[in-house]
């Protein structure tokens, strides 16, 4: 079955093309009805972009994934979220703090460690840390008891102590040789003596006059 045109012809669009252009959903580009009029002598200024076809003067028929008067805009379906920009069909450029194909996921730069979860807080991506961790990436362990005498918190509730100190909070001094006569180790290799004793290890008895 053919069509004879006087200056114009009727272009029948296959269902495949039509489905590609008239996708379901409000975000899809508008298509041209089946059996639209096509003028082979039509000119479009500015010209149709992204393989669009000039069907009538200054009227473009856009290929799948593009829309606009000259098919200049890429179309992302669903639309890019959270301020993302559609670069090409189905590809969004996301602002900092967001990721995923349509910028629908909150992302934290460098990720969140130790079970932290990335979440948007007042529009800013932040790591929400479990109770035993802190820091921008949940990288810092929390020792509720504190780490004294130069100790470092290396895991929740666990201190790494410098040489000469022991205990959960690095609070117990270590004397390589024990303090004698009831003396107490108060810092590495230093004893506090009970009267009448003195000396490095409280080994000397002070003579009374």
Automatic annotation (TrEMBL):
The keyword rRNA-binding belongs to this UniProt entry's keyword annotation: no
Region forming the signal peptide:
1-24
The cysteines covalently paired via disulfide bonds are: 44-54, 62-71, 108-118, 129-138, 175-185, 193-202
In its UniProt record, a GO molecular function of this protein is: signaling receptor binding
Q: Which SMART domains match?
A: EGF
Q: Which domain of life is it from?
A: Eukaryota
Write the protein's name. Answer: Schwann cell-specific EGF-like repeat autocrine factor
Alphabetized, the UniProt keywords read: Disulfide bond, EGF-like domain, Repeat, Signal
Which SUPFAM superfamilies would you find in this protein's record?
EGF/Laminin (SSF57196)
Q: Spell out the PANTHER family in the cross-references.
A: EGF-LIKE-DOMAIN, MULTIPLE 7, EGF-LIKE-DOMAIN, MULTIPLE 7, 8
């Amino acid at each position: 079955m053919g069509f004879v045109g006087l200056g114009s012809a009727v272009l029948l669009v296959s269902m495949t093309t039509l489905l590609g252009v008239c996708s379901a959903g409000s975000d899809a580009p508008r298509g041209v009805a089946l059996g639209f009029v096509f003028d082979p002598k039509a000119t479009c200024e500015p010209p149709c972009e992204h393989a669009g076809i000039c069907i009538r003067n200054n009227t473009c028929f856009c290929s799948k994934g593009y829309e606009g008067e000259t098919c200049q805009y890429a179309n992302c379906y669903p639309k890019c979220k959270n301020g993302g920009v559609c670069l090409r069909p189905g590809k969004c450029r996301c602002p900092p703090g967001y990721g995923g194909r349509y910028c629908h996921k909150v992302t934290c730069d460098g990720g969140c460690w130790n079970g932290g979860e990335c979440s948007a807080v007042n529009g800013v991506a932040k790591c929400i840390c479990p109770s035993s961790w802190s820091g921008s990436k949940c990288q810092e362990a929390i020792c509720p008891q504190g780490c004294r005498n130069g100790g470092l918190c290396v895991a929740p509730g666990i201190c790494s102590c410098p040489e000469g100190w022991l205990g959960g909070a690095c609070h117990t001094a270590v004397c390589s040789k024990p303090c004698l006569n009831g003396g107490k180790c108060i810092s590495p290799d230093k004893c506090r003596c009970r009267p009448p004793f003195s000396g490095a290890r409280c080994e000397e008895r002070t003579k009374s006059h």
